[in-house]
Amino acid sequence: MTELAYMVREDWAQHGTTMVPQSAVIRDWLGQAPYLFAVTDVKKFNHNDRSADLETGDFIAPSAADRRVFNVSELGGLSRQDKVLDHAVVILHPYGERDLDALGDAVKHDALGKVFVMIWSPRDMVRAWLDGLGALNLHTGEALGAPDPLMVEAGKSMVNEEYNGLSSGKGKDAVVQLVRAFTAAGYPLDVDAWLRAYFAAGGTFRHGEEVAKLLGEMKKGIKHRVKDRYRDNIVEILRDRLAAKA
């Protein structure tokens, strides 16, 4: 199982005052050099492009001789080739669907032993994914608690509908009805909590964006017209299903 950790860029930098000590924290977690950096575009990892990736790399590994740089998209090939990269990897500011899917696929197939992600913004989808998988926040030194098991069970029902997409049709029906049922049962409509549960259930980045959009609209009070996919007592059904697995 891949060991995961992250830091949000603003926590790392803190207005340009803490990059050195925070980078030391990251190095301690990563282990010995060389440091493997996965970036969106290796061609832009240079001083001419004033790359934020390069700035981060310079602080984590001040000596260029200690750095090995490659594209995040290459991670997807590890699982396809049934290979495992035991050395720790630093993922710098991932954001594109292709890169995120490559990272998610490599972690899903245990192709990486240890991964640290520098997150550009605290609202980036990759943070919800990392928190859902129990990643360690190196800034706080703690991981968030595991997602609610019953919400994860509901997330599995959402994942089962991904082939239809989750923004319309049966997929949308499933997401909206499940969240409504849980809200009626006393669960707060917490978008971040639902995303963590969805990713813990095996959800993908592509459809995670759809889930986030639907939940955000529901949070604002938008009423979606959907067809019933589940019985009125779906929360109790999922609770019994979860208990049967225990």
Summary, kept brief:
This protein is an alpha/beta fold and 246 residues long. It is 47% helix and 12% strand. It is elongated, with a radius of gyration of 20 Å.
Topology summary:
Layout: E1 3-8, H1 9-13, H2 19-30, E2 35-39, H3 52-60, E3 67-71, H4 76-80, E4 89-92, H5 97-108, E5 114-119, H6 125-132, E6 136-137, E7 142-143, H7 149-159, H8 169-184, H9 191-200, H10 205-219, H11 234-245
Parallel strand pairs: 1-5, 1-6, 2-3, 2-4, 4-5
Antiparallel strand pairs: 6-7
Helix pairs in contact: 6-9, 7-8, 7-9, 7-11, 8-10, 9-10
Description:
The chain is of the alpha/beta class. It folds into 2 domains: 3-143, Rossmann fold (3-Layer(aba) Sandwich); 149-245, no CATH class. The protein has helices at residues 9-13, 19-30, 52-60, 76-80, 97-108, 125-132, 149-159, 169-184, 191-200, 205-219, 234-245; strands at 3-8, 35-39, 67-71, 89-92, 114-119, 136-137, 142-143. Strands 3-2-4-5-1-6-7 form a 7-stranded mixed sheet, with helices on both faces. Helix 7 packs antiparallel against helix 8 (169-184). The protein is elongated and about 60 Å long.
Keywords:
2 domains, alpha/beta, 11 helices
Derived structural class:
alpha/beta
Largest sheet: 7 strands, mixed
Helical proportion, percent range: 40-55%
If helices are DSSP runs of H or I spanning 4 or more residues, what is the number of helices? 11
Could you list the spans in which at least 5 consecutive residues all have pLDDT below 50? none
CATH fold group of the largest domain: Rossmann fold
* Overall shape: elongated
Binned strand content: 5-15%
Measured between the Cα atoms of the first and last residue, the distance is 21 Å
Estimate the mean pLDDT confidence: 94
Strand order of the largest sheet: 3-2-4-5-1-6-7
Instruction: Quickly count the domains.
Output: 2
Q: What CATH architecture of the largest domain would you give?
A: 3-Layer(aba) Sandwich
Specify Rg, calculated over alpha carbons. 20 Å
- List how many beta strands DSSP finds: 7
Give the helices and strands as they follow along the chain: EHHEHEHEHEHEEHHHHH
Task: Give the CATH level 1 class of the largest domain.
Answer: Alpha Beta
